[in-house]
């Protein structure tokens, strides 16, 4: 047992030993689609602990990274040009958009230019601020996957002050995986499904990975033992040919998910074909507010500041390969700017801004070598 492994729990060490005992010889790729998973994998050093032929690929697990540029731009413009308080989760404040140098390129810069923009940590804070500043309008720029969007739906369903409106940029996780699996080169042999999303939506959302595509999948939590259990499960499936959706996070993830949260999502929001930054439109992958919540929809309350020219595919900052990182096509340190021009102190793209972004997670976990010279179309081991 090396130094890395000596820090593991007994359960994690046992799963690691079982995984090694499978003696898989083929090169195989396991994708995760959750920033929390990627952080645990990187911080615990799981990539180095498992056999060399098994790759752990970070996939579409960062909602801030895929929040379309036109939505961030719209939030900036509303904050600059309307008499409002704009609140957003902290990560969003530093996400850059492409604008001429003289214009604010992030919410943080818009705040420096005089806009009233405040970071929040929960929907409850948005309500508290709305109550405190009434009758001024508070715009809650809410970007996130199901786990973030469900509390926003609950907030609206349970009633909010008249002066609180939502600029929603909600996304569903599974359609991005479906898009990858339906593409010519999915780039994964197995999937670790996200624990928190499954807690809300139910593990059944990931059944299609197994039934439609024959790819093994296992839901995992965030500790190394549950992640290693999920890795063992999918590798064992690949070895034996057996296929199933395994739940390696049963203490939290239950069949059917959270019925109340799902019902609130359904009553407040509808699903539509949504744009993902740098990726393009993914069918049935976005949440928007239903007509019955029009009075709290920032897009209906304010004239649109959306700029259609920003909806084109590939609107990452010049040189930023975040879209390919998000889709698991390259590792973060295979971007030419990684650690060279782009670091957490001076991020170029959203993947280095967000705590859930793979570039930031890798940098924080100690991956400092830039492997851009080595990159090809396929992911090579970092
Ligand atoms: S290292 Fe920076 S520039 Fe490169 S993909 Fe990541 S966020 Fe974009």
Account of the protein in words:
With 382 residues, the protein is α/β, with parallel strands linked by helices. 37% of the residues lie in helices and 18% in strands. A six-stranded mixed beta sheet has the order 4-3-5-6-11-10, sandwiched between helices. Strands 2-1-7-8-9 form a five-stranded parallel beta sheet. The longest helix is centred in the middle third of the chain and has 17 residues, at 224-240. The relative contact order is 0.16. Iron/sulfur cluster is lined by residues 320-322, 325, 332, 335, 337-338, 342, 348-349, 351-352, 359.
First-to-last CA distance: 22 Å
| Overall 3D shape | globular
Ligands and ions found? iron/sulfur cluster
Helix count equals 17
Q: Extract low-pLDDT stretches.
A: 375-382
- Average pLDDT over all residues: 92
Strand/helix succession: HHEHHEHHEHEHEHEHEHHEHEHEEHHH
Strand content is 15-25%
Q: What is the strand tally? A: 11
Helix content: 25-40%
The strand order across the widest sheet is 4-3-5-6-11-10
- Could you give a short account of the major beta sheet? 6 strands, mixed
What is the SS-derived class? alpha/beta
**Whole-angstrom Rg:** 21 Å
Give a topology summary:
Blueprint: H1 3-6, H2 10-21, E1 28-32, H3 35-43, H4 46-49, E2 54-58, H5 63-66, H6 69-81, E3 84-89, H7 107-112, E4 116-120, H8 123-133, E5 137-144, H9 146-158, E6 164-171, H10 174-182, E7 190-194, H11 195-201, H12 207-211, E8 217-220, H13 224-240, E9 245-247, H14 259-268, E10 269-276, E11 280-289, H15 298-301, H16 322-326, H17 358-364
Parallel strand pairs: 1-2, 1-7, 3-4, 3-5, 5-6, 7-8, 8-9
Antiparallel strand pairs: 6-11, 10-11
Helix pairs in contact: 2-13, 3-17, 9-14
Bound molecules: iron/sulfur cluster (SF4).
């Amino acid at each position: 047992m090396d130094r890395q492994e000596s820090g593991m729990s007994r359960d994690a060490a046992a799963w690691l030993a079982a995984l090694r005992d499978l003696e898989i010889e083929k090169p195989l790729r396991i994708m995760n689609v959750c920033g929390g998973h990627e952080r645990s994998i990187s911080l615990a050093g799981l990539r180095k602990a498992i056999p060399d032929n098994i790759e752990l690929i970070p996939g579409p697990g960062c909602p801030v990274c895929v929040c379309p540029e036109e939505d961030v731009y719209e939030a900036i413009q509303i904050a600059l040009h309307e008499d409002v308080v704009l609140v957003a989760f902290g990560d969003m404040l530093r996400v850059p958009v492409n604008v001429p140098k003289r214009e604010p390129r992030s919410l943080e810069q818009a705040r420096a230019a005089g806009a009233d923009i405040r970071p929040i940590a929960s929907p409850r804070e948005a309500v508290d601020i709305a109550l405190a500043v009434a009758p001024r309008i508070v715009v809650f720029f809410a970007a996130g996957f199901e786990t973030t969007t469900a509390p926003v739906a609950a907030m609206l369903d349970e009633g909010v002050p008249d002066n609180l409106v939502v600029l929603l940029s909600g996304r569903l996780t599974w359609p991005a995986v479906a898009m990858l699996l339906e593409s010519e080169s999915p780039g994964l042999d197995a999937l670790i499904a996200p624990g928190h999303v499954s807690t809300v939506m139910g593990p059944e959302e990931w059944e299609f990975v197994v039934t439609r595509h024959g790819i093994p999948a296992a839901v995992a939590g965030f500790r190394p033992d549950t992640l290693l259990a999920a890795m063992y499960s999918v590798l064992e499936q690949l070895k034996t040919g057996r296929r199933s959706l395994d739940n390696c996070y049963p203490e939290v993830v239950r069949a059917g998910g959270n019925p109340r949260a799902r019902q609130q999502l359904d009553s407040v929001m509808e699903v539509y074909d949504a744009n993902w930054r740098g990726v393009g439109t993914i069918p049935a992958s976005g949440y928007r507010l239903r007509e019955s919540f029009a009075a709290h929809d920032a897009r209906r309350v304010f004239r649109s500041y959306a700029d259609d020219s920003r909806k084109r595919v590939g609107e990452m900052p010049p040189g930023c390969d975040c879209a390919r990182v998000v889709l698991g096509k390259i590792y973060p340190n295979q971007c030419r700017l990684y650690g060279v021009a782009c670091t957490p102190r001076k991020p170029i793209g959203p993947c280095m801004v967000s705590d859930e972004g793979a570039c930031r997670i890798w940098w924080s976990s100690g991956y400092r070598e830039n492997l851009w010279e080595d990159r090809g179309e396929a992911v090579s081991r970092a």
